[in-house]
Amino acid sequence: MKKNKLPKKRFRNRMYVMTACFLLCFITACGSGKNQPQNADTSVIADLVGEPSDYSKEENWLNIPEITHEVDTFYLYPTCYIDESKDAKPICDIDNKQMQEKAKPIYENQATVYEESTNVFAPFYRQSNIYEVVYLSNEELEQYQTQEQRTDVYAALDYYFEHYNEGRPFIIAGHSQGSIMTKIVLGEYMKAHPEYYERMVAAYPIGYCITKDWLKEHPYLKFAQGADDTGVIVSWNTEGTGNKGQHNIVVTPNAISINPINWKLDDTYAGFEENLGSRIMNEETGAYEIVKGVADAQIDMERGVVICTTEDVEYAPAYLFGPESLHSHDYDFYYENLRENVKTRVDAFLKTR
Question: Are 322 and 243 within 8 A, CB to CB?
C-alpha cells in the first residue's frame, strides 16, 4: 500500500489535546433488529450502585439539541476524568469540572459527525479515573464500569426515553469508556427494554474490538455486513503497520472491524483517494478543516483491525496501545465517510418504517 503523509506544519490533528483522554478504551457492542429480545425482562438488570444523578437538570447534559431530524443519537464520550492527585476519587462526581471541560472538545471532534442526520443527546456521567483502571484487564474493566458509571448512564437513558425521545428511532454511539458503557447498555438495558431496542438504527461503538466470541454469547447482536444494514454494530480499531504483533489494550483475539471507507469486512484496500475527508486542525488558523488524502484503510483479517499507512501522525501512548496505535484518530481520520454512512443507515431505516 502506498503511504501518505499528513500536510506538514499547517495541519496537525489535535483530537485529544488532553493525551490521557485516549488512554482508556473499552469493549462495546450493539444489537440487530433481526433477532430481537422478545419480552421485556427487567430482571436482567442487576442492582444498581448508588443513587443516580438527576437528569431532569439540564446542567447534567453535555448536549440537548433542538429537534430537527427524525432520528436521535445518544452519545457517550470517552475518558475525560484524569486526576493523579493523592486524594483523587476513583470515580468522579457528575459535576467534576475537569471531566466536563474535557468532554466538550471531544464532543466537537466525535459527536458532530452524527449531527447532520440526527439529534444528538449527550449526558454527562460519572467516570472512572484513568489512573484507577488503566492497568485492569478487559474483564476487570467491564466489571468496574458497573458501578456509579452504569447507574448514571441508565438514569440518563431512562430520562431520555421518557422525556426527550418521543418514539423516534435512535443511534447509540461512543468511544473508549463510552464504548464499554455502550456494551453494557446493549447487552443488558436494551434486553430489558425491547420496545426501545426495536427502534435502534445502529450502534457505533468505535475504538475497541468487538469479538466473534462475544457475539456468539449475545446471538441477537449482529455486526454490520455492509454500508446500509441497520440494527447492527459498526465498529473498528485503527493501527499503523508497526503495531502488528504488538500489545494493544483495545485489540483482543477474534476481533472484528469494518473498513470505514468502503464498508467491507474483507481485506479490500481503500486508498487515500477514496477517503471523503478527515477532520484536521489547521495550525495557522486554529480551526478544524476537512482535508482529503490523509488516511487510507485496509483490514488486517488476522488481527481484526483497520490498518492505516499515514505517516507523520501522533500515535497513542505506546506502553498501552503499541508503537503505532491510531486509536485517537478512529473518528477524525474517517470523519466524512462516517458522516455519510450515518446518513445512509438512517435513510435505510426510515424506508422500512
Answer: yes
Q: 40 falls in which pLDDT band (50, 70, 90)? A: low
Amino acid at 154: Y
The structure's pTM equals 0.88
Query: Angle, nearest 10°, between helix axes 148-159 and 177-184?
Result: 70
Q: What is the pLDDT at residue 83?
A: 93
**Using an 8 Å Cβ cutoff, are 89 and 148 in contact?**
no
Burial environment of residue 166 by CB neighbours within 10 A (0 to 12, 13 to 18, 19 or more): exposed
| Sheet with strand 72-76: strands edge to edge | 61-63, 119-123, 72-76, 170-175, 200-206, 232-233
Range of the domain at 310: 4-351
Q: Tally the domains of the chain.
A: 1
284 exposure class (CB count in 10 Å sphere: 0-12, 13-18, 19+): exposed
- Contact (CB, 8 A) for 209 and 257: yes
Percentage of residues of the chain with pLDDT beyond 70? 88
Nearest-angstrom CA–CA distance, 201 and 154? 19
Element (H, E) at 318: helix 318-321
Please choose, from the candidates 81, 125, 128, 130, the residue with its C-alpha nearest in 3D space to the C-alpha of residue 101.
81
222-241 b/e (C-beta count within 10 Å ≥ 16 → b):
bbbeebbbbbbbbbbbbbbe
**For residues 54 and 60, is the Cβ–Cβ distance under 8 A?**
yes
> For 205, which DSSP code?
E
Q: Reduced to 3 states, what is the DSSP secondary structure of residue 246?
A: coil
CB 310 within 8 A of CB 292: no
| Average of per-residue pLDDT across 106-123 | 98
Judged by DSSP in three states, 219 sits in coil
